[in-house]
Amino acid sequence: MTEWLKNAVFYEIYPQSFYDSNSDGIGDLRGITVKLDYIRELGCNAIWINPIYDSPFMDAGYDVRDYYKIAPRYGTMEDFEHLLGEAHKRDIKILLDLVPGHTSDTNEWFQKAKTGFPTEYDDRYIFTKCVWDAPPEYRLMCGVCERDGNYLVNYFSSQPALNYGFYEITHPEWQMSSDSPEAWATVDALKDIMRFWLDKGIDGFRVDMADSLVKNDDEKIATAKIWRDIRSMMDRDYPDAVLISEWCSPQRAIVNAGFHADFYLDHQGNGYNALFRKKMGDGENLSFFADGAHGDIDAFLAEYLPAYYYSKDYGYISFMTNNHDMPRAPFYMSEWMIRLTHAFMMTMPGVPFIYYGDEIAMRYRTDLVSKEGGFSRTGSRTPMQWNSEKNMGFSDADEDMLYLPVDHSEGSSTVESQINDPASVYSNLKNLIALRKANPELMNESGFEVVYSKANEYPFVYRRGSFTAFVNPSDDDKTVEYDTAGAKEYYFLGGYEINEGSVTIRSRSFLLIRHEQS
Length: 518
Ligand code: NOJ
Hints:
This protein is α/β, with parallel strands linked by helices. It has 3 domains: 308 residues, Glycosidases (TIM Barrel, Alpha-Beta Barrel), CATH 3.20.20.80; 60 residues, Oligo-1,6-glucosidase, Domain 2 (Oligo-1,6-glucosidase, domain 2, Alpha-Beta Complex), CATH 3.90.400; 70 residues, Sandwich (Immunoglobulin-like). It has 12 helices and 20 strands. The strands form 5 sheets. The chain has an 8-stranded parallel beta sheet, with helices on one face. α6 links the parallel β8 and β9. α7 packs parallel to α9 and α8 packs across α9. The longest helix has 20 residues. It is globular. The structure holds 1-deoxynojirimycin. The site of 1-deoxynojirimycin has 9 residues, from loops.
């Protein structure tokens, strides 16, 4: 059973930037293996690795050329099997990134489908009937291949969408139903890929753009049907493996589609954004967690609470410190504020994810030219900063060969500079992970209840079983009435006072108290 997920703390690895074991300037699988003890030491017991499949890297590997082959720059299949074995020896689970919605236009399926000659892959992608047929409401690549038709793309123009059919058919001459045998043949091809990796022993997949499969499926009804079918395969044949969706709709992803967990992503105006990333065009930061904070906790709760209550019996919502698609936290807040966010995330229900380098508060670089389709995301994908040696310990290669430049700017942190400093972001996060793992109530053995929240006000107070957390990122001390009988401080950042009938939580502070069990 997937019990292990309940107690998981994930570490996300962007493989090209983690650790280069063969001095070619790019991180690789052997490099990840070398650093497994580091990850375990931090307290993480599961890893999500961004795509490692063969790819032309027009979108950093989210454009898969061959789902069955490791990209040579990362190593070989033996290297991968070695990594998996070594991870499992240390009780670390490995999730690969599954890209089900699109391939690279260099994928053999597409290479054949675009020729105009009949092949077995003619219906694997979505082509219009002829090249003059180009309804503007669809993202089509027009007139670029021999086949007489335009094809739908999912993301960049090099990522043709796979054909899982349409739920509502608006152009019957070229759109197939999501129930058609052609659409389900794509599902079968996807299942073959999944089986290949699951048979090797991986522990599941993070699923890229999981909601993108069926087109014209606004309510995601047909898309959910496909995932439920895949989930039954998993339950039957790989009961220990998990599926985690990039979807950001727990109701749809977890309850309807059967994902074990769903990412809480940063979307403009959503709850995650309101908590951590609400920076306005003029630079004003309106996040709940911000220096000089004046955010609105209700903007988070209004979304999170219904999603949590609706999905909690079926799966988990995943908070992440960051990921490879958004600016790292120091772009928005001070290191101190980052610690408060870590305390919050490690005491919330669900399955948390730590993006590589966030444990040392690596910065977001705004001075880089786009790399492999990264564009504004490139600044969050720079090499891991291990130590003060050459290239900050990331690689022995010459500097000009590095995948991306390392951050040598003043004050830039390294693992070496933080790991033995009890006051560092690293040590703080490590302590928090340990605290979470030592207390099943802080993972998923207990529920989540709001004790105190007011729109546009601080603090925010919530209960997790016998624990209560007080969060006050604002500039002012805050006092709330609270029955403190039997309450003892368990962990804090900043300052507090526990009095009879009230708790004062100092400015920019976090407090976790525990009630003695009767
Ligand atoms: C989401 C991934 O996280 C992102 O990096 C990628 O570019 C798109 N999906 C397209 O696959």
